[in-house]
Amino acid sequence: MAKLQGATRKTLMIVEDEVLVAMVLNDCLEAAGYNVLDLTDRHAEALEVAKASKPDLALVNIRLAGSDDGVALAEQLKALDIPVLFISGQVSRARSAQTVAIASLPKPYDAADMVIAVAYLLARIDGDHSLPRPPGLEVFDDSGFDLEPTS
Fold it and tell me: HEC profile for 99-128?
């Protein structure tokens, strides 16, 4: 996959219990020009990585390894001012937790869709509202992060 035009070395964190999914995402996002932190699949480990590295965006599955919960993790990441993109097939749960995440991209998705969604969200976080919203990406207005243009 080619690097996106204008992609900067933004730092991402992937918190995913499916190892193969996490590895594919990691490879595609790094190929697109992003710095991806060590992959995690548990709440406590992800929180430590986030505190130490302050990623620009965290991609979080709602169901994590063991009985860990991605929504609870998203609450703590939000408190650290780290925006969260839910990457989960649990669409209704993601919508019910929209105050702690900026968006949701439901499974199944392909890696190209994820790269486009990440570029879109990072641009919006940086105040660039010129990109069209990618298909399938649900952006939450209740997240507390300013993603909408002021006019």
Answer: CCCCEECCCCCCHHHHHHHHHHHHHHHCCC
pLDDT digits (tens, 9 = 90+) for 17-30: 888 989 999 999 99
- CATH class of this structure's domain 11-143: alpha beta
Contact 83, 58 (CB under 8 A): yes
Token pair for 62 = 């709602």
Instruction: Burial-class residue 11 by CB neighbours within 10 Å (0-12, 13-18, 19+).
Output: middle
pTM assigned to the model: 0.87
Coil vs helix vs strand at 123: helix
pLDDT digits (tens, 9 = 90+) for 100-116: 899 999 888 888 899 99
